[in-house]
């Protein structure tokens, strides 16, 4: 190398941002479904070294070395909406530890139960691609493959329609009353005049 630099240059290096070989202290992995997609959270806890490392979608978010206190919490943010997440580290006996994930101050289980009530999710395949469409019922925001969509709302005879486009495809989410208090409003995704079934959450 003419520059005198002894380090090799890898321009097309396709290696992941981290290696499982290095993750010898991996103690927990969670998949968290948010409006912008499903995010993988991984946590390393070195109980002899005091190391704590948090990865979100393979990217290192937090790294702490030589932590003398082995219990505690690590707080970070996930996804496009910067959703608050906290990993709690608790001693359960001797040198055994329990790791729990909280999303927006709730246990992951409680958060996902509430989320199934406040969102609708559809997955469809068109033009050779998979699309994940999420409606946030409280704000009527529509997300597709991690991006918040530009929408236009319209009142119709039996409810409302929220219009948006995916590529060249006309889409809308129709909201109509079920007529039953317990069921509330029913949301249906229509793409190119075809109803898309909702995925079970």
UniProtKB/TrEMBL annotation:
InterPro entries: FAIM1, FAIM1_dom_sf. It is found in: Cytoplasm. GO terms for biological process: apoptotic process; negative regulation of extrinsic apoptotic signaling pathway via death domain receptors. Keywords: Apoptosis, Cytoplasm. GO terms for cellular component: cytoplasm. It comes from the Eukaryota. Its main location: cytoplasm. Belongs to the FAIM1 family. Plays a role as an inducible effector molecule that mediates Fas resistance produced by surface Ig engagement in B cells. This is Fas apoptotic inhibitory molecule 1. It comes from Saimiri boliviensis boliviensis (Bolivian squirrel monkey).
């Amino acid at each position: 190398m003419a520059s005198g630099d002894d380090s090799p240059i890898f321009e097309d290096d396709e290696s992941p941002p981290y290696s499982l070989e290095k993750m010898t202290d991996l103690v927990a992995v969670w998949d968290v479904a948010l409006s912008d997609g499903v995010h993988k959270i991984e946590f390393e806890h070195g109980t002899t070294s005091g190391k704590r490392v948090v990865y979100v979608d393979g990217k290192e978010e937090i790294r702490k070395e030589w932590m003398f206190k082995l219990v505690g919490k690590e707080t970070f943010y996930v996804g496009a909406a910067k959703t608050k997440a906290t990993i709690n580290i608790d001693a359960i006996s001797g040198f055994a530890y329990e790791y729990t994930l909280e999303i927006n101050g709730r246990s992951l289980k409680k958060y996902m139960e509430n989320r199934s009530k406040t969102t609708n999710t559809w997955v469809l395949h068109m033009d050779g691609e998979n699309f994940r469409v999420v409606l946030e019922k409280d704000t009527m925001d529509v997300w597709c493959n991690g991006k918040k969509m530009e929408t236009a709302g319209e009142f119709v005879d039996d409810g409302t329609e929220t219009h948006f486009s995916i590529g060249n495809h006309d889409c809308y989410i129709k909201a109509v009353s079920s007529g039953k208090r317990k069921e509330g409003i029913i949301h249906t995704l229509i793409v190119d005049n075809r109803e898309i079934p909702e995925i079970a959450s």
